[in-house]
Amino acid sequence: MSSKLPVNNSQTITDFLNLHHNQMAEDNSADSYKFAFEDEAFLARRETLGLRFQLELLKPEILLHERGIEHTITVFGSTRFVSSEVAQEMRRVAKTPQAVAQADRALLHSKYYDSAREFGTLVANYNATQKEDRNKLHIATGGGPGIMEAVNRGAFEAGDKSIGFNISLPKEQYPNPYLTAGLSFRFHYFALRKMHFMLRARAILAYPGGFGSFDELFEVLTLMQTKKAIRFPVILVGQDFWCEVINFKKMLEHGVIEQADMDLIHFVETAEEAWAVINKWYQLA
């Protein structure tokens, strides 16, 4: 009986690029003669995985440095939230019970989109008072829709730099339109994207979200808990949501976390409260 164990448990870059085996073989001189750095099929081989990791780390690192980006506030949250204007229009045109329910849920959650947009503006307004790049904090997100779009939008509309670290997905996630030219990046590997979320982060702001937001949030908390990263503000917007979907109290009662771990987290309800936490932590002018 043959084993059904998979050869590889990930979507490889060759799968993503739809490269076939005969393209990888490079049987003719036209392929083998290419410069290695110009040869897409060669760079997509299993053996060059480490090189791709290095490149995904290095490219944004160089470009951000060249643009004077030293400090960021990384913002997580649902891709599914829309602005109050969009939600109200959804409600206006809703005809079926299902559409009405969807619109009502969009209206309920639109407060988070509007809050994130306001937060981006608050950060941009602070940056406008600073002359030196080393004193500025820039908005960084996953570059997609929803909360990411909202906070990028707030910063962009206020005339500030706005950064997006996008990711290749089976259903491709396109960059939102509020990213600064030259500061919109695309990753294939979540691990490298997460590194860039953290490398310059001076605070993490998390709005309600799904698996992706939870994954990113707990990665940050674990790094701080294990002292792999210095402590900085981790701010959760909407205490009712977070404490309903994650029973922190029960985790404490079961002893799987300690009060010191909970002390990493700041619960807030508004954009102004979130900015106040960061302002106080760093004693910003």
TrEMBL record:
InterPro entries in the cross-refs: LOG_fam (IPR031100), LOG_family_nucleotidases (IPR052341)
This protein's GO CC annotations: cytosol
Origin superkingdom: Bacteria
GO molecular function: AMP nucleosidase activity
Catalytic activity: AMP + H2O = D-ribose 5-phosphate + adenine
EC numbers for this chain: 3.2.2.4
Pfam families: Lysine_decarbox
First-level EC class: hydrolase
Name of this protein: AMP nucleosidase
